[in-house]
Known about the structure:
Layout: E1 3-9, E2 17-22, H1 37-56, H2 59-62, E3 73-77, H3 98-101, H4 105-114, H5 132-140, E4 147-159, H6 163-171, E5 176-179, E6 182-185, E7 197-208, H7 214-228, E8 231-236, E9 245-248
Antiparallel strand pairs: 1-2, 1-3, 4-7, 4-8, 5-6, 5-7, 8-9
Helix pairs in contact: 5-7
Amino acid sequence: MDKIEVRGARTHNLKNINLVIPRDKLIVVTGLSGSGKSSLAFDTLYAEGQRRYVESLSAYARQFLSLMEKPDVDHIEGLSPAISIEQKSTSHNPRSTVGTITEIHDYLRLLFARVGEPRCPDHDVPLAAQTVSQMVDNVLSQPEGKRLMLLAPIIKERKGEHTKTLENLASQGYIRARIDGEVCDLSDPPKLELQKKHTIEVVIDRFKVRNDLSQRLAESFETALELSGGTAVVADMDDEKAEELLFSANFACP
Length: 254
């Protein structure tokens, strides 16, 4: 059953309406004041769902529950037991939520914690802290012979000339950096515009994928993560449009 069918609903403001509502979807009922929104949602769908549920219980259980009046409707099909939360204060506790009121908060917390996968809302990538070994294995899974370079992001979309940053990198022995998408020699870096946002990534290593690179890559990744504060990028040297590999040692979007 993938829909709820309502036929001949006449509860309160409803004028003998027929309606088909998809199940397992978020449905919004909207309209002018007095158009019958509450009559449909609360006084028809909820009332009938609750009434059917109570009727399915044993006579002993029913004596502790109040049976709702049958709504003025010809037929409703596909309706499950319903929960209704009206838009009004039902508790004096200002920290009450839908989850606490319906007593599903603890279950939802466990569900999201154990089954859910946190994702970055901006880039839609999974959020997970990776170890150096996992990063190395990911790189070595690329086609053998592929030319790649390992980058450490230092500046991300920040305004400024960043002259001191580039000078410090050169003094530490780094030879190249990718500045705004272009690989440049740090001995003669380009002059950056003060009021423009720039991205600076230091080239930590350049290599061809081989199975015997594990130790070298591990050391390079450790250097990149220490320099950048926990993130690293692996880019294709022959195809600028190829998708880059993003790595993070932090539980955050790289």
